[in-house]
């Protein structure tokens, strides 16, 4: 039922690139909670703390008992399509360009009936699993997905617009020397990426791992140093117009706290981890934002791989943590700046990486390059904004969400 | 004296003397010395626009630079090395400026360096050079020509798993230079010492012995193949940096044509 996407032909240079238009943006404060869930790939709805009713759409009070004590809770996504309709006319520019559009009503097993988008492989009477996805406006929307879809179900146009699937897309990995760069390259290619470009800083310093990339099909290594504005500008001028997904892997790590650390190491951490991201955004962000609606291989996402220490520092890596917090803040600002274009900003939080010499003395668990690669690809396929990868990142992220101040106390040794 | 200066100016104007630029362009891609990563590193040259005839400054363009004292073609002061830390007037801002201009001799090691990346400048090479050109005069700069400046990319540092491989002087050569009471020593490689210079006794003999004796260093030079063995005048004034241990420098030579 889903028509597989094929690699698009080369662009007609006489045709104007379609300008991105967005689905409706406005939401109530309560409804923004759908986006919070969707950003993390969770399916959750408002639940009443007093009477346990689960409700949709989100409101400021419980429809059953009028309690204002509502919490967002992960719920079972199983449901049945009760009705469907096809919309053929809309005043919204986004939908006008995509008519006809199928919508349905799904009865959730846990109670509420949801008005939702329908995947092309589901129809009236089907058992479905509901998902919350971010649409191009960055808002959480509901889509009914098949319980067991076809192999190409990701190619469904409605779902594809809610995802940043690497299939047929061209990807730039900012630092080829990063420990996860090779695994990431392989994972992206097997996910159907059309081409993977990798940035190489300081080609005057030989690195034996380079040989692994040489001879790989649809892989190019090009000069790029995120600490050098002229290098970023040059590569952006050359290939910025054909980058659909940018993955920032550049990272600078040194051990050391605040009082005894060297500010020159700290300065390098900020140059790479924070300002490097900013330079990449300045070089590539504007062009990518303009190409969000550029056909099958349209620009889709900017990915930043962050240490979970961005959320709460490990004092043994004080300056590094500070630079990661700064990088996360830049990511968030960038996410806000991308809002009007439909570009997604995805943060992938990781813990210490297996094989990274700068984390060598730390005990396990560490996250492997392959795990990071899998998380990045699945995060893109699912269209997420916040991804945690590995046990440490998942644990710290969850504790930070629950109580950031308690996490700080746990990190400083008060917990046991 | 004014006649001498007038004569030099006239020689340059009429072309019987010319200026050779011994300086590499400061470029973000130019290699710097690499130390074990747990040590502090030499900052790469970086240049960011402050304004470029735009909203940040409508009628002017200028840049902010970031670099180490020892980035690109540069001058080493005695205070650069631990052996020279107590040398009087050992920082760049304290050095008598008269030493920034002076005679220079060039020892051509290009044939040896072409055959052997770890070519050693030994006392025998110096003595053979002196047999041809006379003894190295006191207070002269000595430059080691290797044509290494013609290398680019990874070939310049020539890094292997056991460290960089590039030519340089042996400890005994530096001792001989000190006997001759030279002013300073310069190379085309990234440092005044050989790539494997850390394995000599003392380690990094050019840095250790020369700076300990209050002598100067120049590195990352180029165009040494345009200089005569003797008779040129070297002009190498470092920036006047307070407490500076070195400085990127526009190194020039004046040669008779």
CATH top level label of chain B: Alpha Beta
Mean pLDDT level of chain A: 96
Give the N-to-C terminal Cα separation of chain B.
23 Å
* Backbone CA Rg of chain B: 19 Å
What is the assigned CATH homologous superfamily of the largest domain in chain A? NAD(P)-binding Rossmann-like Domain
Taking pLDDT < 50 over at least 5 consecutive residues as the criterion, the unreliable ranges of chain B are: none
Please identify the oligomeric state.
Answer: heterodimer
Query: How many DSSP helices of chain B?
Result: 6
Q: Order of helices and strands of chain B, N to C?
A: HEEEEEHEHEHEEEHEHEEEE
Count of extended strands of chain A: 15
Report the C-alpha radius of gyration of chain A, rounded. 22 Å
Q: Sheet with the most strands of chain B?
A: 9 strands, mixed
Largest sheet of chain A: 7 strands, parallel
Query: How many beta-strand runs of chain B?
Result: 15
By secondary-structure content and strand pairing, the structural class of chain B works out as alpha/beta
Query: Structural class, judged by helices and strands of chain A?
Result: alpha/beta
Q: How are the strands of the biggest sheet of chain B laid out side by side?
A: 1-15-13-5-7-11-12-4-14
CATH topology label of chain B? Glucose Oxidase, domain 1
CATH class of the largest domain in chain A: Alpha Beta
In which range does the helix fraction of chain B lie?
10-25%
Broad shape of chain B: globular
Question: Could you outline the blueprint of secondary structure elements for this entry?
Answer:
The complex is a heterodimer of chains A (416) and B (257).
Chain A: H1 32-39, E1 44-48, E2 54-55, E3 70-74, E4 78-87, H2 93-96, E5 101-108, E6 113-118, E7 127-134, E8 140-146, H3 157-161, E9 170-173, H4 181-190, E10 195-200, H5 210-213, E11 219-223, H6 229-239, E12 245-248, H7 263-289, E13 301-307, H8 318-338, E14 344-350, H9 369-382, E15 386-389, H10 391-402, H11 404-411
Parallel strand pairs in A: 6-8, 9-10, 9-12, 10-11, 12-13, 13-14, 14-15
Antiparallel strand pairs in A: 1-2, 1-3, 4-5, 4-7, 5-6, 7-8
Helix pairs in contact in A: 4-9, 6-7, 7-8, 10-11
Chain B: H1 2-14, E1 17-21, E2 46-54, E3 57-66, E4 74-76, E5 101-108, H2 110-115, E6 120-121, H3 123-133, E7 141-145, H4 154-157, E8 159-160, E9 163-164, E10 168-169, H5 171-180, E11 184-187, H6 205-212, E12 216-219, E13 232-235, E14 246-248, E15 252-256
Parallel strand pairs in B: 5-7, 6-10, 7-11, 11-12
Antiparallel strand pairs in B: 1-15, 2-3, 4-12, 4-14, 5-13, 8-9, 13-15
Helix pairs in contact in B: 5-6
């Amino acid at each position: 039922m889903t028509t597989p996407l094929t690699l698009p032909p080369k662009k007609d240079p006489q045709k104007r690139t379609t300008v991105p238009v967005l689905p409706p943006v406005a939401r109530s404060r309560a409804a923004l909670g759908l986006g919070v869930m969707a950003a993390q790939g969770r399916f959750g709805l408002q639940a009443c703390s007093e009477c346990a009713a689960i409700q949709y759409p989100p409101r400021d009070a419980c429809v059953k008992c009028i309690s204002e004590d509502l919490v967002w809770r992960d719920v079972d996504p199983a449901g049945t399509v009760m009705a469907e309709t096809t919309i053929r006319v809309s005043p919204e520019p986004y939908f006008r360009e995509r008519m006809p559009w199928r919508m349905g009503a799904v009865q959730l097993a846990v109670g509420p009936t949801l008005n939702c988008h329908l995947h092309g492989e589901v129809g009236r009477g089907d058992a479905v699993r509901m998902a919350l996805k971010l649409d191009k406006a960055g808002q959480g929307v509901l889509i009914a997905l098949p319980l067991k879809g076809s192999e190409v179900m990701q190619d469904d146009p409605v779902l594809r617009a809610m995802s940043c699937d690497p299939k047929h897309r061209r990807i730039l990995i900012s630092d080829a020397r990063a420990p996860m760069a090779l695994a990431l390259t392989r994972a992206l290619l097997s996910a159907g990426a059309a081409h993977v470009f990798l940035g190489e800083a300081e080609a005057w310093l030989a690195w034996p791992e380079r040989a692994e990339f040489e001879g790989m099909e649809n892989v190019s290594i090009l000069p790029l140093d995120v600490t050098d504005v002229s290098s970023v500008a040059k590569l952006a001028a050359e290939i910025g117009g054909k980058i659909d997904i940018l993955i920032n892997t550049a990272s600078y790590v040194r051990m050391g706290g605040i009082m005894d650390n060297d500010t020159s190491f700290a300065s390098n951490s900020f140059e790479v981890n924070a300002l490097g991201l900013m330079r990449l955004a300045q070089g590539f962000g504007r062009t990518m934002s303009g190409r969000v609606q550029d056909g099958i291989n349209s620009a889709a996402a900017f990915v930043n791989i962050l240490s979970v220490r961005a959320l709460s520092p490990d004092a043994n890596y004080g300056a590094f943590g500070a630079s990661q917090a700064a990088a996360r803040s830049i990511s968030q600002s960038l996410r806000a700046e991308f809002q009007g274009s439909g570009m997604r900003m995805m943060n992938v939080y990781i813990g210490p990486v297996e094989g990274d010499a700068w984390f060598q003395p730390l005990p396990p668990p560490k996250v492997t390059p392959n795990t990071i690669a899998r998380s990045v690809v699945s995060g893109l396929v699912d269209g997420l904004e916040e991804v945690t990868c590995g046990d440490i990142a998942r644990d710290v992220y969850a504790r930070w969400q629950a109580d950031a101040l308690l996490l700080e106390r746990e990190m400083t040794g008060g917990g046991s | 004296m004014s006649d001498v200066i007038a004569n030099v100016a006239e020689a340059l104007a009429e072309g019987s003397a010319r200026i050779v630029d011994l300086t590499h362009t400061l470029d973000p891609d130019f290699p710097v010395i690499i130390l074990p990563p747990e040590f502090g590193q030499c900052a790469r040259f970086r240049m960011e626009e402050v304004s470029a005839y735009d909203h940040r400054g409508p009628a002017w363009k200028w840049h902010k630079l970031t670099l180490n004292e020892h980035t690109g073609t540069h001058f080493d002061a005695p205070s650069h090395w631990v052996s020279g830390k107590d040398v009087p007037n050992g920082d760049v801002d304290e050095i008598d400026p008269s030493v920034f201009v002076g005679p220079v001799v060039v020892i051509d090691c290009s044939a040896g360096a072409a055959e052997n990346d770890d070519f050693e400048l030994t006392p025998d090479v110096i003595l053979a050079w002196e047999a041809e050109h006379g003894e190295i005069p006191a207070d002269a700069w000595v430059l080691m020509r290797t044509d290494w400046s013609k290398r680019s990319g990874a070939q310049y540092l020539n890094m292997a798993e056991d460290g960089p491989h590039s030519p340089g002087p042996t400890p005994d050569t530096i001792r001989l230079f000190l006997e001759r009471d030279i002013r300073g020593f310069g190379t085309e490689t990234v440092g005044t010492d050989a790539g494997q210079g850390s394995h000599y006794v003392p380690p990094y003999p050019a840095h250790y012995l020369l700076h300990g004796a209050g002598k100067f260093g120049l590195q990352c030079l180029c165009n040494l193949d345009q200089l005569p063995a003797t008779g040129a005048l070297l002009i190498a004034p470092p920036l006047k940096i307070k407490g500076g241990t070195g400085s990127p420098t526009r190194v020039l030579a004046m040669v008779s044509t």
